[in-house]
Amino acid sequence: MCGIIGYLGYRKAYHILINGLKKLEYRGYDSSGIALFHNNEYNLCKTIGKVSDLEKTIFSKKMNLKGSIGLGHTRWATHGLPNNVNAHPHVSNSNELIMIHNGIIENHHAIKIFLLKNGFFFKSETDTEVLVNLIEYLKIENKSSLEEAVRISLNEVIGTYSIAIIEKSNPETVILAKLGSPISIGIGYNEKEFFIASDPISFLNYTKNVLYLQDGEMVILKKNKKLDLRKIVNNLKISPIIKKLKINLKEIEKGKYKYFMLKEIYEQPKIILDTLKSRLFISNEIIYINGVDSNKEIFTKTKSITIIACGTSWHASLIGEYLIEKLDHIPVEVEYASEFIYKDPIINPKDIIIVISQSGETADTLSALKLAKKKGAFVFGICNVVGSSIARYVDAGVYTHAGPEIGVASTKSFTAQIIILILLAIKLGKYRSTVNKSFSQFLYKELDSISEKINRTLELNTTLQKVSNLYYNYNNFLYLGRGIHFPVALEGALKLKEISYIHAEGYPAAEMKHGPIALIDEKMPVVVLATKNDFYEKIMGNIQEIKARKGIVIAIANQNDCQIDMIADHVINIPNICDIFSPLLTVIPLQLLAYQIAFLRKKNIDQPRNLAKSVTVE
Ligand code: M6R
């Protein structure tokens, strides 16, 4: 949460900061601010709302835009309401230090009391203002440099942070530090300029040479000088490892689409092809997953697997549970990362823990992974963002390579995670001889057809627009599914909640009669996943129960299913596919339904209220 941006160089900083903030808005968008440094003075502007509101305020206040050094921030509130005062950058009592921060200083209260006793005052409710004043206090008290004061302060705080701080009287030095929250530095032309950002996509136009700061590191950036990387704990110098970014600019633009979410939904057929192309070699019957191949023994011998994730990735994990139990006969537990950390989990050395995360930065998942590693487990990661914290901490892993996902509601990362889980389950089935040759050949053929079938499913968008037109003003929706379709029902409900703010619940279809059935009346649309499988007749029974109580049934069914046409109010006919792969198709109409409803309700689809793309606080 929160996006940090900064620039130190020879170009006009203003446009770099504003355009960078727009690319970081997915990380938080309740308030924002920038500070520009010029002639040992700074100009600051902060406002509630989006970066576009910040731009308007800057122009209405006729803010001086001079300066080739600056900091900017887009916020997702943790401590204190979203308002102008709590927005970043924060300034120390003497007006000398200006700082932006992403993360949480857990012992901010104790530090604040200490500082109050020492004559400090606070304008905001934020933990960031506490930290910048602690740095100021130590700088004055110890008569030390800013660098030294930052180091000593950070050794005193408990929590997570990525910070960037500048001293007004010496603005050509910027100090950054990291623990838990991401921050990267782009090395610009001739190594004479530095770009600072929570996510390098915001400076991709200028440079692809990136240093990802690691936990416990700080860096001192000086204009026209080489960067100076050090350990926070003991000031030891470290050699920086500069990486070359492989992202293409087109991947982070909306193109012809009104919202990133729609673009990302439509990218799914291509992503599936790309993922399979580099991993599945049908003619040789080989599935290539490096992190699994090099740990074959662990995967072959394991007696159980635990999968840990949050949100949509947790739904993909439930599908993974179903796949691995079915194809490999290995018992699987799926845990919410946030619950796992606090339940004193039983983990034995060499147990397999799989963590799944699109961003690779989700704080709860990261904490769960660290705990699992501490207890000796073998941790395998499935991440989308290359070089992310989770990807770096795991023992082995695989990237989904779905490309940058900008819409806050996850779509393409979900299908990419499922594809990886399918490949993993088939691979383990072959290791453990639970998947024989003819079955694997059948599965490969089915996999080979998925991309084209998703393309055909996307053609249903017009039908879904019509259905959305009828129900977009309703207040509640229910989503039902059985077996592997239950997690898809959860995912459909989550998508609708997130972007349209309609109350929606996902339920196992058979559980409906144990409670939710009480909610059903003529004002309750029920989305039922009713493709042909072993539970088909049971699901038909559930649909009858809904209709008997005047509920509205929107069924996701297979082509040429005449039986369901007779009882459901609306039938969305998707192509046929084997049941264990069908979530890849059934989820598509649910993503489109949520999108169309949110569109009709005129919601900001890519940046729904209260949410942020990566949840980097616990
Ligand atoms: O980046 P992660 O996959 O770890 O994120 C987990 C959840 O925060 C995420 O899936 C969230 O639920 C999405 N907004 C769902 O659309």
Characterize the structure shown.
With 618 residues, the protein is an alpha/beta fold. It folds into three domains: 3-250, Aminohydrolase, N-terminal nucleophile (Ntn) domain (Glutamine Phosphoribosylpyrophosphate, subunit 1, domain 1), CATH 3.60.20.10; 254-457, Rossmann fold, CATH 3.40.50; 459-607, Glucose-6-phosphate isomerase like protein, domain 1 (Rossmann fold, 3-Layer(aba) Sandwich), CATH 3.40.50.10490. Helix content is 37%, strand content 23%. The chain is built from 20 helices and 27 strands. An eight-stranded antiparallel β-sheet has the order 3-2-4-1-10-9-11-15, covered by helices on one side. Strands 5-6-7-8-12-13-14 form a seven-stranded antiparallel β-sheet. A five-stranded parallel β-sheet has the order 19-18-20-21-22, sandwiched between helices. A hairpin with a 6-residue loop joins strand 9 (184-187) and strand 10 (194-197). Helix 10 packs parallel to helix 14 (412-431). The radius of gyration is 26 Å and the shape is globular. The mean pLDDT is 94. 5-amino-5-deoxy-1-O-phosphono-D-mannitol is lined by residues 310-313, 357-359, 362, 365, 408-410, 494, 498, 611, 614-615. 5-amino-5-deoxy-1-O-phosphono-D-mannitol (M6R) binds at residues 310-313, 357-359, 362, 365, 408-410, 494, 498, 611, 614-615.
